[in-house]
Amino acid sequence: MAYGSKFRSQGVLYFPGFPNGVKWLLISNAAIFIVWFFTQIARMDLPWEFLELRPVAVVKMLFIWQPVTYMFMHAGFGHIIWNMLALWMFGADIETAWGTRRFLQFYFFCGVGAGLCVILLNYVLPWGNPGVATVGASGAIFGILMAYAMMFPNRTILFSFLIPIQVKWFVLIIGTVTFMMSFQQSNGVSSFAHLGGLLFGYIFIRSVNKRKGVRIRVSGPSLTDRYHQWRLRRNRKKFQVYMKKHNDRGPWVN
Predict the structure, then answer these.
(1) Contact 118, 134 (CB under 8 A)
(2) What is the pLDDT of residues 35-73, one digit of tens each?
(3) Can you list the positions of beta strands (E) in 163-242?
(4) Separation of alpha carbons 158 and 177, rounded Å
(5) Regarding predicted confidence, which is higher, 129 or 63?
(6) For 181-199, b where at least 16 C-beta lie within 10 A, e where not — what string?
(7) Spatial separation of the C-alpha atoms in residues 220 and 149, rounded to whole Å
(8) Disulfide-capable partner of 21 in 75, 100, 182, 239 (CB 3.0 to 4.6 Å)?
(9) Coil, helix or strand at residue 2
(10) Of 16, 24, 2, 25, which Cα lies nearest the Cα of 143?
(11) Domain 2-210 CATH (choose: 1.10.1740.10, 1.20.1540.10, 3.40.50.300, 3.40.50.11890)
């Protein structure tokens, strides 16, 4: 994927590498998918449905492992390829910046948090369906996208490998689209998990940054800093206008 930022030249093809956390997540997801695929081909009757996230099963039958195991289940080649591609493209840089331990904490925090949102929203919203299963790492991936946008907002990526766009606008667009899709029934995509991943990714970074002695680097000023900078610029302009008016009166006479 092509990246551009103040640290790298625009349009230079950049490969983030394979740090340990990302590497083993890729391997584990791929291995489980391969086993699942060939058991489906062989028509082996294995209880894969117990690993999917089904809200009614978690609430009524206490299948409390499902908010974790669903992240390693995928519905097809396209599903796992795009999830793992996004995990590598965006997750590798984050793990390099944070370290493997914190990255994995973040990954599972977002994934499990997204699963809890799926359970809650399917019960609370009128168009929710607690009986429908959710699979895939998309919740955790969307958390990674949120973290990436907060850390490298002005970095340029090639959307669909064709359109250059800054990460902050890319995440804003997909977040808006996901929010709109969450109002559709039976669209085949778990928008609840995507929104939950974005939310928990934001919560993780902000909560960690508030702890004493711990800080995750986030590029760019916060909203509060932006507001104070705007007030400072406005007051500076007012002062300049004031001085110009008084200077036009000529020198003071003593």
Answers:
(1) yes
(2) 999 999 988 888 899 999 999 999 999 999 999 999 999
(3) 163-166
(4) 18
(5) 63
(6) bbeeeeeeebbbbbbbbbb
(7) 10
(8) 100
(9) strand
(10) 25
(11) 1.20.1540.10
